[in-house]
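Service request form, structural biology core

Requester: graduate student, group of Dr. S.
Request type: structure prediction, single chain
Budget code: on file
Notes: please return the result as structure tokens.

Sequence provided:
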Amino acid sequence: MVLIVSQSLMAQARGAPESFAELAERISPSVVNITTSTTVAGRGGPRGIVPEGSPFEDFFREFQDRGQPNRPRRSSALGSGFVISEDGYVVTNNHVIEGADEILVEFFEGFELPAELVGTDPNTDIALLKVDADEPLAFVPFGDSDTARVGDWVMAMGNPLGQGFSVSAGIVSARNRALSGTYDDYIQTDAAINRGNSGGPLFNMNGEVIGVNTAILSPNGGSIGIGFSMASNVVTKVVDQLKEFGETRRGWLGVRIQDVTDDVAEALGLDSAEGALVSDVPDGPAKDAGMLAGDVIVSFDGVAVEDTRQLVRIVGNAPVGKTVRVVVNRDGTRETLRVTLGRREENETAVPAAATGPEDAPSQFDQLGLTLNPLTDEIRGELDLPEGMEGLAVMDVDPVSEAYEKGMRAGDVITEAGQSPVRSVEDLETRVAEAREEGRKSLLLLVRRGGDPRFVALSLDEG
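Core staff response, request fulfilled:
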């Protein structure tokens, strides 16, 4: 008995709840099941059932014709969601309602209401719905996901596998997970999440929503304790914009960026591999403010920039039209630029500007594991490059070189070395010599492939 009491006291001291019952009872009325229906075109024949030309093809065609296969049919899907206001706004996942003709919301008390789609954001897989009820609806508030710590207790609610309202509990397993999206900021949890839980809430112990259950990692389709919930601090910004505009309006800086690796930091003379390296500045807000390729963004609107993923998120969360201070490291000194942000959704396909300059006579270069030639009209034509573009075409890459290991291939074009334009072999040789004189161990190259730029730092020990 003493041992049991001791274990109970230890559990309480660690913050482990004796029961989730009171919390579940309090917040269940705000959680909903979502059923969607979609009209799907009927199948047109035996394709996929028997191989074409099979002796059974006529039999299966006759069998399917009896069932009128060309008639449209209704397809249903199940998911979860939660009410965020007494007047009927409901949050769920975009993939739960995507393409739906009808959306039906079932409440914990057993009644159902049709829902209208307010707006969606495929980038974060969030959708906002609206239902009209005669009485104020029970709802739950969002919490601050940034305060969630690894090891904190959490509770997931939803409609797993169509079984109806269900509760599972676990802990925060990890923070700031990224799956495949640009704005990913997932909370990983071992609370059981299965198909049908999508769009449901992840609660902290205060009954606040700190995540929207979105995905699982599983080899068999069922929960193995690795679930992902989109962090509430991402969701709230999306929901506010969907409610106000019916769409998202994210800030746009107008740069192409890449992470600062250790070798890039060394080549630029930086103290640490932090910030976001600007690889290209097409026409847009950053260019208007004077930003240059080769700048390293170290601060945005007062927030220190750790890497490209973080920068993309904080820029996207910034209001369109806001003028922000962007601090860059340029040639060893810091400069502050004032940038008025554009709207990302209007500029998703911005194309970088091409450099122009005089043409040099071809001469070959064999160093750093690269065989290079200055661009000529003939080479530009073969590589489908803009007329007048200058640089050095990569004709061959030594398969055992560092350049090959870092992804450089024949057909790439080097337009800068040491953050200065290169139009001839002599330019590159000068950059190599200057870097060695300055004691640099590597040289930073700006490499373009199909119009997409990136920086590559190559060791000067080779060649």
